[in-house]
Design brief:
Structural class: alpha/beta
Order of helices and strands: EEEHEEHEHHHEHEHEE
Radius of gyration: 17 Å
CATH topology: Rossmann fold
Strand order of the largest sheet: 6-7-8-3-9-10
CATH class: Alpha Beta
């Protein structure tokens, strides 16, 4: 599913070069549930952006579902993001002026899916996250946990190969965090490949496998 070999990424901060990734290598199999854990500044956000095709490395190779990502243009990467990756963010990233249903529908509009098919898939996605009865509510009318469920529904509505979750429980209380993690476990059991970025050991150890990143270097750890 994901094959990363010797990825390096350097940023220029003022006059200083900062290595965000240092010859990082990683392999994730289809239908795995993997956590990537590291402190602030460890390189995990850079790694997430590259896995999510939001950024490209300076050196090394990245293959996603058989596609050599480093060979694609930005326009082509946008298509790959829309069709193969479902994103879940800490801040939910819902559009305030759209209902839950409309937020979930957006990726399908970008894919030019027919209206009737869109409505069917949006309904199914909201049902999967237990929010069918909140379809017509605005984000401000939903709790933090409900907003994150909408974000997860939006991530899965396109049936992506990969669900990429960046600190998905970071803005939630402990009870709601457990509920959201239970939902990720359900999605994993249904055959989804999940990569979850976190700085929390308790969250990381819930995955089937944990990858540690520090100073841009990757190692597998037991938590």
């Amino acid at each position: 599913m994901i094959d990363i070999k010797n990825l390096s990424k350097v940023y220029l901060v003022g006059d200083e070069k900062v290595s965000a990734l240092d010859h990082a290598s990683l392999h994730i199999y289809p239908m795995e549930f993997v956590s990537i854990i590291g402190p602030s500044g460890s390189g995990k956000s850079t790694l997430m952006n590259i896995i999510g095709c939001l950024d490209v490395a300076d050196a090394g190779s990245y293959t996603l579902d058989g596609l050599p990502i480093e060979e694609y243009t930005e326009r082509e990467l946008a298509v790959i993001r829309n069709r193969k990756i479902g994103f879940v963010f800490q801040s939910f990233n819902l559009i305030p002026k759209l209902t839950a249903e409309e937020n979930v529908e957006l990726p399908l509009i970008y894919q030019k899916v027919k209206h009737s098919e869109r409505k069917k898939r949006v309904k199914e996605a909201l049902e999967r996250v237990g929010l069918a009865n909140r379809a017509h509510h605005m984000p401000t009318e939903l709790s933090g946990g409900q907003q994150q469920r909408v974000a997860i529904a939006r991530a899965i509505v396109t049936n992506p190969k990969l669900i990429l979750a960046d600190e998905p429980t970071g803005a939630l209380d402990s009870k709601t965090s457990r509920e959201i993690m239970d939902l990720f476990h359900e999605l994993h059991e249904q055959g989804n490949t999940i990569v979850l970025i976190t700085h929390d050991n308790g969250i990381a150890r819930q995955a089937s496998r944990a990858i540690h990143i520090l100073d841009g270097r990757i190692s597998e750890v037991a938590l």
